[in-house]
Structure formats: structure tokens, C-alpha cells
Amino acid sequence: MRTDDDLTTLLRRGLTRATADLDPRPDLVHVVRRRHARARRRRLTVGVAVPAAALAAGSGLALAVHDAPNHSPSRTAVAVPPPSTPATRASAPRTTPVRSVPTKSASYRVVLSNHSTPANCPANATAPVSKSANPAGVWFFTNGQCVFVGVGGAETKPADAVPLHIKGYPGLYSTLENGVRTIYAPGIGHPRGWWVLKMPATAPQDMAVRLIVPAN
Amino acid sequence: MNLGSDFDEFVRDSSPALLRTAYLLTGDRGHAEDVVQTALLQVARKWRRIHGEPAPYARRAVINLTKNHWRDRFRRPPESTAIAELGSGRPDADLSLRQVLLPAVMDLPVRQRAVLVLRYFQDLSVEQTAAALDCSIGTVKSQTHHALTKLREALDDPTELKENDHAH
Fold this sequence. Notes:
The complex is a heterodimer of chains A (216) and B (168). Chain A is of the alpha+beta class. Chain A is built from 3 helices and 8 strands. Chain A starts with a helix and ends in a 6-residue tail after the last helix. By secondary structure, chain B is mainly alpha-helical. Chain B has 2 domains: 1-79, Rna Polymerase Sigma Factor, Chain: A, CATH 1.10.1740; 88-168, Arc Repressor Mutant, subunit A. Chain B has helices at residues 5-26, 29-45, 54-75, 91-106, 110-121, 126-133, 137-154, 158-167. The relative contact order of chain B is 0.11. Classes of the chains: A alpha+beta (216), B mainly alpha (168). The interface between A and B is large, with 30 and 45 residues.
């Protein structure tokens, strides 16, 4: 009968010998590095896309983008070069184009989903805010304060509206008057042509606009 | 986070032992290679945050991944064992060793097999084995005892094995 020593000696020798000719693939370092880089890129993408989507879903305001190839549900939006032909929709605004803006005919559709009033918003906020007609708009909570973004429409944007450059959202304009910032987004399906978002000048306009997410 | 040349060096140095360990734990070369790659990816992700030697971290990752492998394997229909392919060289001298010892080791429960591989292949101490398996020292000792007892019973024709073993 084998003793434990016999067995362990046999194991040491046997396991070593049985795997002696087993070597990792020569390019293992490159394979691991490649997979690591790919996984890292994926994590970064998710890290950017998920908070934006979560923010939009949590706030109740989402502007779905149509006719803009740079907006798709599977990836974040990126700026695209201007097209060779202008938009021909009847409801397109008839204002003097501002040359410094990407002229892509981006257009957005406001998606007002069911939403409850954020906990710290004013008690008299209409709930669900996103369905509210008076005032029409949404509340969202940021930096310890509740921000109201009024959502309305306009046939045209003011001549003094300046282009608003937010990466991934072409065609936006804004004005700032009496402490109120107004953002104009070309609106698909909007009877008046433009969606108008009104918010306090101190409100983070990027955050408000970033609520514009690709949606089906 | 960028990986420096020290990571490449670590992969080159540690991958043979990790692959062999994974091979002995999974019994399948393909799965072993997958496990090692995944374990090294986990190491890469935390490379700058690993204090001290990264080898134990990688070894632990391999063990955890092989546990998952076995857990998944129990849920799937049984596959033909890949042990027959173990070792492609020196067929005559190691034949009995491979045909008797390795299947006997593979028949052990996962934890007992892991204890044997870590202690007698990786040459880890009882304490290091306990740390790698995330269990107590007493558990390592008892699992070793049970494993050796089962192995002794399984090797029912020790003469032939011993002769071949010594003949090599």
C-alpha cells in the first residue's frame, strides 16, 4: 500500500511530467493586450452612454431624433458633416441661415414619457410632469436644486439666436434674455417647426440638452 | 490605464504555470487557455492597483474561473473527457501515468483536485493553498487527506504505475 509520501512524490512527478509539453501560445501577450484594450473601450463607451440615457429616462424629457443618421439607439450621437442638399420640409424655418453652424437638418421629437415628480421639486409641480399641459415641460433635479425646463414650440427662431454647440446635437440655437435661456431645436412633427426649451440662465444647458437621447 | 512592459514580462513568466494549472483543473486544453486569458485580463484591469506580487492574484483568478467552468459543465450534458489528449510527447514511458494517474486526479471532486494541484504541482504551502482557495488551513489539510485516500484507492494497480514511473 502506498504511503502518503509515495503518493505525493508520484503526484509531483506525474503532474509535472504530464504537463511538461503544454505551453501557452506565443502571442499570448498580444492577445491579452488586444482583449484588454477592447474591453477598456467598451467600458468607456458604456460609461458615457449609460449615464446619459439614465439621466434622460429619470428626468422624463427625451427628444427622439429623426432624419439624423448620426443618431441611432445603439450608439451615442456624434456630429456629422453638413449635407449637400438642404432640408425640404414644409415646416422648416425660414430664417437667415447662420453659416458657422453645421447645417445638417437635424430634427427632434419630444418624447414625453410617464414620469413622477422628483422628490425635491416643488410640491405644486404637476405630476406626471412630462404630461403636464400647464406648465408644459419637465422638472429635473441637479446640483441640489430642481430645474424646470419648459417645452413649447415656435414657427421660427429669433434672428439673434446664436448657434449652440453641443457635441452630437447639431442644429441647436439659443438665446439668453432676462435670465432666461431659450434653446431652439428643429422639431420633427412639431406643428410650428421648432421645439423651444426654456430654462433659467443658471441651469446647466448641457445637461438639459443631453436629455436628448436617441429613442425609437 | 496603460500596461507597461512589466505586464508583458509577467505574462511571459507566469503563463506557462498558469496554463498548466488551469489544464489540470479543467482537464481541457481549450478551456484552460480561455481561463488563462480571462485571468490575465482580470490582472491587466487591476495591474496598477495590485500591491506586491501579482502571481497569487492571477492564480486565484484561474482557480475561480475554473470553478465557474466546472459549475457550468455540470449544467451541460456530459462531454467526452479531454484527458486522453493530455501530453502529446513521450507516449510509451508516460502512458500509464497519463492513463491511470491523471484520470484518477480528474475524478476527484473539484476542491480536492484543486488542493492537490496547488500543493503538489504548484508547490504551495498549506497556508498559501488556503489563501488561494479562500478556505481555512484545516480545510486544506482535510481535503488533502481525503484526496490522497481516494487517489490511493483509485490507483488499484500501483505496481505497473510505479515500474513505469521509475523506468522513466
